[in-house]
């Protein structure tokens, strides 16, 4: 199920009876979409992609979502400030987690219930994100990349991380002064890449 390149779409109220999507649910390049109200009855989806919706400031409207069976991708949403609305879907993301190119994102704490991601995690190109506070998975079964977050000053978050079954890359976060959140035992089965 996808809605894309709908530049005049201002709301998704017509979807208020939608409860489940077995595959991908995507909103892409909906430049006039103000919020996600109307999706409050959506409980189960395969994968979720919100991309290029440049007016929405949060994900409230997805509060009813209790399970995701695949990827979670929040990308290229230039006014998105928080991930609020994603707090109820459970502890496991059975796919990739991509939080990238959200120019106004200041908080990812809505992910505080996530304990395991079964594939890769990318937190990249979020130019004003100051910390990773609230994001404390126990395990990542793929790669973890935290890169090009120009306002990331401290590695607050990840205090519970115990294993990464892939590479850990911390690259080009120009204001990052420490990675103290990782000063505990973490099992890394791939490569460690750290570059300024």
What features would you describe in this structure?
The chain is mainly beta and 196 residues long. It has no helices and 15 strands. The strands form two sheets. Strands 1, 2, 3, 4, 5, 7, 9, 11, 13 and 15 form a ten-stranded parallel beta sheet that branches. The protein has a five-stranded parallel beta sheet with strand order 6-8-10-12-14, with no helix packed on it. It is globular.
Q: Please bin the fraction of helical residues.
A: under 10%
The tally of strands reads 15
Mean pLDDT: 95
Biggest β-sheet description: 10 strands, parallel
Radius of gyration, Cα only, in angstroms? 16 Å
Tell me the overall shape.
Answer: globular
What pattern of helices and strands is seen along the backbone? EEEEEEEEEEEEEEE
Write the layout of secondary structure elements.
Elements (H helix, E strand, L loop, with lengths): L1 E3 L15 E9 L15 E8 L15 E2 L3 E4 L16 E2 L3 E4 L15 E2 L3 E4 L14 E2 L3 E4 L15 E2 L3 E4 L15 E2 L3 E4 L1
Parallel strand pairs: 1-2, 2-3, 3-4, 3-5, 5-7, 6-8, 7-9, 8-10, 9-11, 10-12, 11-13, 12-14, 13-15
List the main descriptive attributes of the protein structure presented here.
196 residues, ten-stranded parallel β-sheet, five-stranded parallel β-sheet, mainly beta
What's the quick description here?
The chain is mainly β.
